[in-house]
Every structure is written in C-alpha cells, then in structure tokens.
C-alpha cells in the first residue's frame, strides 16, 4: 500500500447501512467489479443489502426524506473505502449530498460529507473551504477539525494542520484523531512518536472494522518503514485474523516478503490482494516485482493497468460532477515506464495545485533527477526536506540529488541515514546510489 492520500484519509463515518435512491436500480448502485467476490459474500455486505430493502421502502413512502439521502451518501462513502470503487461511489455520494444541500445549505453533516468526498477525490482546496464551513457551523464537533487537518496536510500547510489536529484531539481523542497525530508526527520526523500515536489509534478502534484494520495496517507500515519487519508482519497477520482477506493487509505481507527478497512470495500476496480489491498501488508493486524477476512484459502490463485504474485516459473533469485528481501518482507511474515527458507533465500539474506539499515536491524533484535536470531537482527536494521528515525513501533520493549537485558529503550522509533507518530499502533505488559509496 502506497502512502497516497487516498489512503491517508482516516476521517470516516463508521456506518453499516446503505441504500439506493427510489428511482434508481439496485444493480447500478450496489456496484462491484469482477474482483469483489470475497467482499460481496461477506457478512458485512449481506447485512448492508438487508438494510437496503428497508430503506427502499422508506424512500418510496417519502422520496424527499433528506435524512435518508444523507445516510445513503455516508454509506456510499464507506463503501468506496471497502470496495475501492471510488469513482463509482464518490460520484453517487456527491449527487445525494448536493440534493441535501440544495434544501439546507447549512446542514453540518452534509457539509462534512461533501468535504470527505472532495478529500477522496484530491480536491484539497475545495475540501479546505468546506472544512472551514463545517467548523463555523459547529465549532464543538471534532469532525470538522479532522477535515481541516487532512486538507491542510495535503496543501502543505503543516502548522495549520497541527493546530487543527490538536483541537480535534482535545474535543475527542479517538481513532480518527490519534491517526492524524501519528501522520503529523511522521511528517515532522518523529517516527517513534508516530508509532505510539498509531498504536493508540488501533487500541481505540473496534477490531475487525475497516477503519481499525486500516490503521493497524498503517501501524505495520510504520514498522516496515523503519526496518522492523517482524513487528510489521505481526500487524498484518493480526489484521487478516480480524478481517479475513483484507486487501491492504495482504499487500502488507507482500511488502515484507519483497523486503526479504522473497519476490515470488511477494508476487503471490499482491495478486491475492488484487483479487479482493483493485487498487492501483497493487499493480504498481507487482510491476516492480516482475521487473526484479526479469519478467519485463508482465511488469509493463501491470504498469499499464495501474495507469488505467487511475483513469489517465478518461476526462473526469468534463463530467457534471468532477472526478479524481491523480497526477502525482501518474507522474511516478509514467516515470517507471520511462515516459519522462508525461511524468514531468503530471508532476507539474500536481505542483501547480499544491506547491507547498512535501510529497509533491519530492515527486517533482525525483522526476527532474531522472531527467538529469539535477540543479532544478535540488530546489524542490529542499522543500520536501523542510519538515525534517525521516522517511528513508525521501532521504535516499535527496542524497542522490545532493551528490549530483556536487554536495558529495551531504548526499552520502543522507543516504547512510536512510539505510540506518531502513536497511531493507527498495533494491532498485539503492542501486542508483550505491555507486557513490561502498555499503558496509
């Protein structure tokens, strides 16, 4: 599981109901791709289907029941997380929320729901505006501050994000606030504090719920990122015990096997994850693994599939309700395909939307580095380093860029620091830096 924003959004409504609008078919809304057999047969989904029948009857009796419409939207927000069908459910959710807001533009829950979908779609500036609306409507509700935290993080307004997260935690310390605190500590280079806060998030959640197991998997990723494969694996296994066939836990185990250079076993885990849920990051990981096993055709096929999943060839913005921005993710995928012009185009598109975000600056710097535009890369990598993050991939890439700019001692120190944090750093990345010094 890549650390992308889709998947840093922990602001979720814990709901187990779903419904459909009275004039729409059940088939259209209860959407599953061909890969969702395990989800559709789950007890959770069967309970959701049972709830639908009751809500259908309620909506037939009163098609103008705004509360039912909003509950429907909230359910679809949760379904998008469970199934990975964000494009399908996000669009329907926004349609329903818009109907509610037309009747009552100051409906706090509807404003929060709209902001949540906007965050999922990576429309962060719009989400920030809705978050500010939510806080004005109800300054005592923690959820609005969660929206402000997420939006400010993604826009690179880190101090504002800290203030919002602290306010949220002061109102209600729970899974949602602890997980945000964890991520902010990680951004500011406090990996130990990030682990502690995510542990609190997991402990405050209900085992088996998607939100809890998502946090548990991220807890495992923090261990993995700091080279502690044993504890990372423990978290992924626990997540699978609590929530069988959980795709992100399967992918987590794949990441552990990849770090151990057990590439065939890693491929098996990522393919299992793909059967349950189609996430572009699974195909991206498989592409890297097939490259490591010298299966170039399979690698390219997975990269093509990852690009397709991100909707690179569809014009979402031409739709009545806008779609998902994924330029940062696409930039990295095109870079791996060797299409540096497309990579640059998407990296700049993302940068123009949020020039202060550290991940965006890191992406642009790395694309420039791979294009041998090393001086330009240095400018953007400095912005990416501004928070003091101890992310080993960031540090290692920064080291390569610094050496390329003639700062050999600084660059080698950064690469060594990265390997001290995580000696299991990606093989292909290490190969780019190994020529600069002899690894012990």
Keywords:
disordered N terminus, 24 helices, 440 residues, Serine Threonine Protein Phosphatase 5, Tetratricopeptide repeat, 3 domains, 71% helix, mainly alpha, globular
Question: What would you note in describing this structure?
Answer:
This protein is an all-alpha fold. It folds into three domains: 1-167, Tetratricopeptide repeat domain (Serine Threonine Protein Phosphatase 5, Tetratricopeptide repeat); 173-244, Tetratricopeptide repeat domain (Serine Threonine Protein Phosphatase 5, Tetratricopeptide repeat, Alpha Horseshoe); 326-440, Alpha Horseshoe (Serine Threonine Protein Phosphatase 5, Tetratricopeptide repeat). The chain contains 24 helices and no strands. It is globular and about 70 Å long. 50% of the residues are buried.
Helix content: over 70%
CATH domain topology of the largest domain: Serine Threonine Protein Phosphatase 5, Tetratricopeptide repeat
Rg value: 22 Å
| Sheet/helix structural class | mainly alpha
Largest sheet: none
Distance between the termini: 30 Å
CATH architecture of the largest domain: Alpha Horseshoe
Assign the CATH superfamily of the largest domain: Tetratricopeptide repeat domain
How many domains, in number, for the residues? 3
General shape: globular
């Amino acid at each position: 599981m890549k650390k992308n924003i889709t998947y840093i959004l922990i602001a979720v409504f814990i709901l187990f109901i779903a419904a459909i609008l009275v004039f729409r078919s059940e088939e259209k809304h209860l959407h599953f791709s061909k890969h969702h057999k395990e989800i559709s047969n789950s007890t959770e989904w069967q309970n959701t289907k049972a709830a639908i029948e009751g809500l259908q009857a309620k909506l037939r009796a009163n098609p103008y029941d705004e509360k039912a419409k909003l509950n429907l939207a909230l359910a679809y927000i949760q379904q998008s997380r469970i199934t990975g069908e964000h494009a399908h459910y996000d669009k329907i959710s926004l349609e329903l929320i818009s109907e509610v807001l037309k009747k009552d533009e100051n409906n706090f829950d509807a404003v929060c729901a709209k902001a949540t979908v906007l965050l999922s779609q990576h429309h962060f500036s719009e989400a920030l505006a809705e978050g500010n609306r939510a806080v004005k409507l109800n300054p005592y509700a923690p959820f609005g501050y969660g929206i402000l935290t997420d939006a400010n993080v993604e826009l690179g307004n880190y101090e504002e994000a800290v203030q919002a997260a602290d306010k949220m935690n002061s109102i209600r310390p729970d899974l949602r606030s602890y997980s945000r605190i964890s991520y902010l500590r990680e951004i500011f280079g406090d990996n130990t504090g990030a682990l502690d806060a995510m542990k609190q998030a997991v402990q405050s959640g209900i085992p088996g719920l998607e939100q809890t197991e998502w946090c548990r998997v991220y807890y495992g990723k923090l261990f993995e990122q700091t080279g502690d494969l044993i504890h990372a694996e423990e978290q992924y296994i626990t997540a699978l015990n609590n929530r069988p066939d959980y795709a992100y836990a399967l992918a987590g185990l794949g990441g552990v096997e990849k770090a151990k250079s057990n590439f065939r076993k890693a491929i098996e885990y990522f393919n299992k994850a793909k059967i349950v849920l189609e996430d572009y990051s699974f195909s991206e990981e498989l592409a890297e693994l097939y490259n490591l096993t010298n299966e170039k055709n399979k690698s390219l096929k997975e990269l093509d599939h990852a690009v397709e999943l991100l909707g690179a060839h569809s014009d979402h913005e031409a739709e009545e309700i806008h779609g998902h921005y994924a330029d940062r993710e696409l930039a990295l995928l095109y870079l791996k395909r060797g299409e540096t012009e497309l990579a640059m185009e998407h990296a700049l598109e993302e940068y123009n939307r949020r020039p202060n975000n550290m991940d965006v600056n890191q992406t642009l710097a790395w694309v420039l580095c791979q294009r041998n535009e090393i001086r330009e890369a240095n400018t953007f990598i400095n912005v990416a380093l501004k928070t003091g993050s101890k992310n080993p991939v960031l540090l290692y890439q920064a080291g390569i860029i610094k050496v390329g700019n003639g700062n050999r001692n600084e660059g080698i120190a950064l690469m060594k620091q990265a390997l001290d944090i995580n000696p299991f750093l990606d093989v292909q990345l290490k190969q780019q830096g190994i020529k600069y010094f002899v690894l012990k």
